[in-house]
Write a structure and sequence with these properties.
There is one protein chain. The protein has two domains: about 180 residues, no CATH class; about 80 residues, no CATH class. The chain contains six helices and 19 strands. The chain has a seven-stranded mixed β-sheet with strand order 5-4-9-12-13-2-14. Helix 1 packs across helix 2, helix 1 crosses helix 3 and helix 2 packs across helix 3. The two termini are about 30 Å apart.
């Protein structure tokens, strides 16, 4: 059986920063946000010329106004064009009041665009990958399938570049579904750490790897592929075809089939064999 080669990305000029800018809560088009320090932590907030610190669960409200963004906290209020928040200790809590609350690890920037607040989290690449693995993987997926998912998610972040005008990626399935950072002891975090820095490569360049929940028995090739892009060879997936999921497809059916990957891993396949099956002729590269 052909083995995966392990190569190293040496071209420093093409190496991206290890921070990704992820727009969050965009589906809600929020006019108001609540940001808070985690319990036991502190959050440094900057709004215009004003700076203050929220401690141990304290919160501030950020609201869209006709003349900018108003930031209110127990010490006062200020209106500016942008609000930034940096956690001391790594995490902050962001909420759309009455709808959704989530903990994020990274620096938060809030601006206004198209009549709504636009929160963006600047997140370490590996934190983002672990968060995607936790959010995107099927429940109970074996660790080798999670490792494959981590490499695929990392490859997409490295290679897909900027997919939105004001930030790199969003937190929905338009880019990659993203939730809070998983616990360090959890399977998603451990799978991410075990594959740290590894990406799929095609002709010396990272692959913006795609994946879907089920392929229905055979993955697909995109209808239009640029000559320099990975062609996504269609492959048979008996694992998915014989699973309890009888639907033809769930998603686009291109690249990794998560149902098939989980079945392969449950049968003893390692993450390299899984990736070799769904992404033929790619190699694993260590991305620095």
């Amino acid at each position: 059986m052909r083995r995966f080669a392990l190569c190293f990305a040496l071209a420093a000029t093409t190496c991206p920063a290890q921070t990704v800018r992820i727009g969050v809560f965009g589906l809600f088009h929020p006019a108001e946000l609540r940001l808070a320090a985690v319990h036991g932590g502190a959050l440094e907030v900057h709004a215009g010329a004003m700076s203050f610190v929220l401690r141990d669960g304290e919160a501030a409200t950020v609201a869209l106004q006709d003349d900018g963004i108003e930031c209110r906290w127990r010490g006062g209020a200020v209106t500016s064009h942008a609000v930034a928040a940096s956690p001391r200790g790594g995490a902050l809590v962001l909420a759309v009041p009455g709808k959704l609350e989530r903990r994020f690890t990274g620096r938060l920037e809030i601006t206004a665009a198209k009549g709504a607040l636009q929160p963006v989290v600047l997140m370490d690449l590996e934190v983002a990958v672990a968060s995607v693995v936790a959010a995107e993987s099927p429940p109970g997926a074996p660790v080798e399938a999670l490792k494959a998912q981590a490499i695929v998610a990392r490859s997409f972040y490295v290679a897909a570049h900027r997919r939105h005008a004001a930030f790199d990626f969003c937190d929905t399935t338009h880019c990659q579904f993203l939730r809070a950072r998983p616990r360090a002891s959890g399977a998603s975090a451990r799978a991410t750490l075990a594959t740290r820095g590894l990406v799929l490569s095609w002709h010396g360049a990272p692959v913006a790897a795609l994946y879907s929940a089920h392929c229905g028995g055979r993955t697909r090739t995109p209808p239009r592929v640029a000559p320099a892009d990975y062609p996504y060879f269609a492959v048979a997936c008996s694992f998915c075809a014989h699973s309890r999921h009888r639907e033809p497809t769930a998603g686009h059916g291109i690249g990794l089939c998560q149902t098939g990957a989980a079945a392969m891993a449950a049968g003893g396949a390692g993450f390299r064999a899984i990736l070799e099956h769904y992404y033929p002729n790619t190699v694993l590269a260590s991305w620095r």
